[in-house]
Design brief:
This protein folds into two domains: 179 residues, Vaccinia Virus protein VP39 (Rossmann fold); 60 residues, Helicase, Ruva Protein, domain 3 (Orthogonal Bundle), CATH 1.10.8.100. Helices cover 32% and strands 20% of the residues. The protein has ten helices and nine strands. The strands form two sheets. The protein has a seven-stranded mixed sheet with strand order 4-3-2-5-6-9-7. Strand 2, helix 2 and strand 3 form a beta-alpha-beta unit. The longest helix has 13 residues. It is elongated and about 65 Å long. The N and C termini lie far apart (54 Å). 34% of the residues are buried. The N terminus is likely disordered.
Length: 261
């Protein structure tokens, strides 16, 4: 019996063979890779991935689809983790992970933030997402798409948008254009904040009122900031600051006692 897409899981199944082939070529899986597929659905990516892999692990929240996958593929080729990807401990799935998937639009941002915590275990990530989200992920400072998602992800990953995917590539077709992004964790030597917690708090605060000048959106911290020393104008807005400037500002406020580790 044909599986009916379930709205509560944000299911839109990829059916375009050309797009599927382009995604798999972009991933370029090698036989011994440790690949984790999030949301395998009806196996559009699962099947071609397994043609290049010894083993694949799939995370699937829909119990009917999880059961279907177990019937289709032997355990030694496919391990099915039945559950919500937002609750999965990816650190338990191995090291040097390559994570892939057609992510449900309704959980894409929370899932991306969830995966930041496992970046030390990851080689790369290839995701299909709403194009609007990917445009925000890779946006440069000063653009309208640049925001909290841009800063937080760019502080941890090198990212590139690969190509767009039209609605008709799915069944049922979504109302938006999708795209595919490649994410590679930055090396150990990357510039990093002294406190990740303080950095996150600053970025959230700065973009909560993104149209305001920083001296106003950060008003109760403003007198503690060495604007000139940091090379930041107090009249700047959050969307004008680079990731490096956010890190420097975070470290400065941490040293001044305005933010806690």
């Amino acid at each position: 019996m044909a599986h009916q897409a379930r709205k509560r899981f944000g299911q839109n199944f990829l059916v375009d063979e050309g797009i599927i082939d382009s995604i798999v070529r972009g991933i370029a899986p090698q036989r011994g890779d440790t690949v984790i597929e999030i949301g395998p659905g009806l196996s559009a990516l699962t099947k071609p991935l397994l043609q290049s892999l010894d083993h694949l692990t799939a995370v699937e929240i829909d119990r009917d689809l999880a059961a279907r996958l177990r019937r289709q593929y032997p355990e030694e080729r496919l391990t099915v983790v039945e559950g919500d990807a937002l609750q999965v401990d990816f650190g338990m799935l191995g090291t040097r992970l390559r994570i892939v998937g057609n992510l449900p639009y309704n959980i894409s941002s929370p899932l991306l933030f969830h995966l930041i915590g496992y970046a030390d275990h990851v080689v790369d990530q290839h995701f299909m997402l709403q194009r609007e989200v990917i445009d925000r992920m890779v946006a440069a400072p000063g653009s309208g798409d640049y925001g909290r998602l841009s800063v937080m992800l760019q502080s941890r990953y090198s990212m590139s948008k690969l190509f767009d995917v039209p609605p008709e590539a799915f069944d049922p077709p979504p109302r938006v254009v999708s795209a595919v992004v490649r994410m590679a964790p930055l090396p150990e030597s990357r510039l990093r904040p002294q406190s990740q917690n303080a950095f996150e708090k600053l970025v959230v605060r700065a973009f909560t009122q993104r149209r305001k000048m920083l001296r106003r959106s950060l008003n109760d911290w403003s007198e503690l900031i060495d604007w000139e020393g940091l090379g930041i104008l107090p009249t700047s807005r959050a969307e004008e600051l680079s990731v490096e400037q956010f890190i420097a500002l975070s470290d400065s406020l941490l040293a001044a006692g305005a933010l806690k580790a």
